[in-house]
Amino acid sequence: MMTEYTRRRFIAKSVGSAAALILPQFESLARAKTGAGGIPTRAVYMSMGFGVSKEWFPKGSKTSVNWKLPKMFEAMKEHKDDISIVQNLSLKGAPPKKAPAHYGGLHLLNDAAAVNPKFGHNASIPTCDQIAAEYIGKDNKFPSLVIAAIDNTSLKGGNGKGMRSISWNKEGRHISGIEGALKLYTALYGNRNLGKEKLASQFAQKKSIMDFLVRDIKSLNSKLSKGDRNVLDQYTSSLREVELNLARSFDLSSKKGSLQHLEKPPEALSGIDDVKLTYDLMALAMEADYTRVISYMLGVDPILKSMKINVSAHDMSHYRGAGKTAHIARDKKNLEMLSYFFDKLKSIQQPDGNSLFYHSMITFTSGLRHKHTRGNLPILFAGHGGGGIRQGMNVIHRPNTPINNLWFSQLRHLNPKLTKWHNSKNNVSEIFTS
Predict the structure, then answer these.
(1) Lowest CB count within 10 Å: 66, 132, 317, 358, which one?
(2) pTM of the prediction?
(3) CA count, 13 A, side-chain hemisphere, 144
(4) What is the CATH number of the domain that holds 155?
């Protein structure tokens, strides 16, 4: 009779309690190569969670360059010619099964079937940031940098329990990501208090644990049922990511792409301070060419709390009580912080005389418009991707146009040979001119 191995029993047998605790602690730290054949394009995808207030959208029924910034966009005044608002793009895939309606962010970057892993489901295709990483990021220290929300509420920034990032890998597994600015700092800079000999010793110890895990997995595989082998496949997929991160963490020889010095941030960071430091670190990582692809899901409740707003993200999204006022204030603050990030990128000059912002594609959006609505998502698209991207518009599409049209256009900008991606083969021609 076949013995059934539960995931808990498998982990206990394979790694023991100490090693099981070590696995999630691994952080990435490796040296990326500089771009060949010119200045590389960077791609950044950000989700603000829980949609926006109705006052967020510019007025107009047709695409126009003569559009007026909404009142809350005051912080974007200096960036107006470098951004576009893209309206009527929607998630077309089926809503997540067995998951609250606010889980729209689960499949924001692929519009694919995706639900909370506790129900045993995965994404049917990877997210566009992971495809972008295959085109432009595979030789970097971080092929993609996945930054997750610090949010202890039940809806986790609008994605749901356990779903703190907006990225799914090519196996359809959710990528947990790096939570918060402090962990991001550690991932980028490592432990500066340890010498190379100590780091090398730690690497050898952790590498031996990984080797042990791989050997033990192979011995267990023949003892498992088909269903258990699927669970094991998910686990080994996660281990492969850990192994890659482990190798990057202890690359002690390369001197290329050094990060500018930045003091270690304080332990108690949250809300606005955490977001702004995350933007600082993102800009530094992009400048040093540690990564060319970033996804970032912002927390929601921590931002509200740091603004002294005593309204939950969920109540905010439904305009309950002081929800409407809270939503407008949160949306305005998000745009102020985003402008701060743009200013950072514009201050970093590249060899051709243009800024890092010019060589980037930056999308700031949400998996919901407001309440439970998945149509006409709020989309602010910025940067020029190194050329071939026209900005400064209020772009109006037909209602319910697939959001994958935008992701396809961005991927095609990185790989002109691409002819189709998922449910889209239509270029956003108003913006992408090449």
Answers:
(1) 66
(2) 0.79
(3) 29
(4) 3.40.720
**108 pLDDT higher than 50:** yes
What is the secondary structure of 391-420 as a DSSP string?
-SEEEEEEEEEETHHHHHHHHHHH-TT---
**Eight-class DSSP state of 150:** -
Q: At what angle do helices 180-189 and 271-287 cross, to 10 degrees?
A: 20
When the pLDDT of each residue in the chain is averaged and rounded to a whole number, the result is: 79
Model pLDDT, residue 96: 60
Strand ranges for 326-409 from DSSP E: 360-365, 379-382, 393-402
Lookup result for tokens 């090449």: 434
- Confirm if 379 and 371 have CB atoms less than 8 A apart: no
Higher pLDDT, residue 326 or 33: 326
* DSSP H helices in 84-171: 128-136
Nearest to 272 by CA among 345, 156, 181, 343: 181
Q: Which tokens belong to 108?
A: 């924001």
* Tokens matching residue 23: 């696995």
In a domain, 101, yes or no: yes
Least trusted range by pLDDT, from 95-99, 132-136, 392-396, 424-428 = 95-99
Domain-embedded: residue 222? no
Would you say residue 198 lies in a domain?
no
pLDDT in tens, 379-399: 999 999 999 999 999 999 999
Whether 401 and 89 have beta carbons less than 8 Å apart is answered as: yes
CB-based contact 185:214 (threshold 8 Å)? no
- Domain assignment of residue 171, given as a range: 39-191+269-414
Q: Evaluate whether residue 55 is within a structural domain.
A: yes
Q: How many domains does the chain have?
A: 1
104 token code pair:
């729209």
Q: 329: part of which helix (H) or strand (E)? A: helix 323-346
Q: Please give the Cα distance from 22 to 202 (Å, whole number).
A: 12
C-alpha R_g of the chain:
22
- Going by C-alpha positions, the residue among 360, 176, 387 that lies closest to residue 286 is 360
Instruction: Give the H/E segment covering residue 304.
Output: helix 301-306
Residue 328 to residue 53: CA distance in whole angstroms: 6
The vertex-422 CA angle with 226 and 179, nearest 5°, equals: 70
Q: Tell me how far apart the alpha carbons of residues 142 and 133 are, in angstroms, rounded to a whole number.
A: 9
